[in-house]
Each structure stands twice: as C-alpha cells, then as structure tokens.
Specification:
Blueprint lengths: L28 H8 L2 H11 L7 E2 L9 H14 L2 E6 L2 E6 L1 H7 L3 H8 L13
Antiparallel strand pairs: 1-3, 2-3
C-alpha cells in the first residue's frame, strides 16, 4: 500500500513558510488606517514610534489586555497592513516598526501617531528577547 502526497503539500523536511509582509509599494493608506482604528493596535504602533529606529520587541512587551489568540490577531492585522515586520526566533515572536517604508509612502503619518497618542500608553520596561 502506498501513501500519496497531495500535489500542493510541501516536502516533509521543508522549513516553515515565512510570513508575508507587503512590499513598500503595496502599502495602502485605507488598510493602515483600518488597522490603527483598534485601540490595542494603535497602542502597539505608538509604542514602536517612541522606540529608537530598528528596535525589535517581543509580543509580551506591549502588555496588551487580550489573550494569546487576540494578541496574535492584532499583530497579524498590523503585519498585513504593512505597519510592522514580524520576526520569529524559535518559539518567540518579535516585531519592529517599518518606519522607513511608512515614511516613504505616507510622510508625516508616524509623527501624527506620536503627536496624537499619550506617552503613557506605551510600555514602561523593555523586555529581553
């Protein structure tokens, strides 16, 4: 008896699929504004705007008041909108702001987010990866 593998199935030893991040030219202002309409997602971006460029923070650093599934959902929406890059380190996941891409496509947007959100909405202590 032989076992058939579906034609679309990846090989058994294939690495996991990389998460898709939109290219700079694919960033859409409507999608970005919809992603930022949620207070938890706005909090994440506001926190990253206040961090030094290139900062990478684990999901837990943001202290979102949601469960694991909700947290994963919020970061997926931000990633798919093109606001953040998600990086996986084994069983840990961390994010960084796509500052250069956002500023190139929508100059002033990050400054408006910074000006429109209170500094106390950001986490106090950075957590180690």
């Amino acid at each position: 008896m032989t076992t058939e593998t579906p034609q679309n199935a990846p090989p058994q030893d294939a690495p996991p699929q990389a998460l898709r991040h939109p290219r700079r030219e694919e960033l859409d202002l409507t999608e970005i504004l919809c992603a930022l309409a949620d207070p938890n997602r706005l909090r994440v971006v506001a926190a990253l705007v206040r961090e030094p460029p290139g900062s990478v923070r684990p999901y837990s650093w943001f202290g979102l008041p949601v469960g694991k599934a909700g947290r994963t959902h919020h970061f997926r929406v931000l990633r798919e909108a093109g606001l953040i890059t998600v990086e996986q380190y084994g069983n840990r996941t961390a994010v960084s702001l796509r500052r250069d891409d956002i500023e190139a496509r929508f100059p002033g947007l990050l400054s408006a987010i910074r000006a429109g959100t209170a500094p106390d909405e950001t986490p106090d202590e950075p957590a180690a990866l």
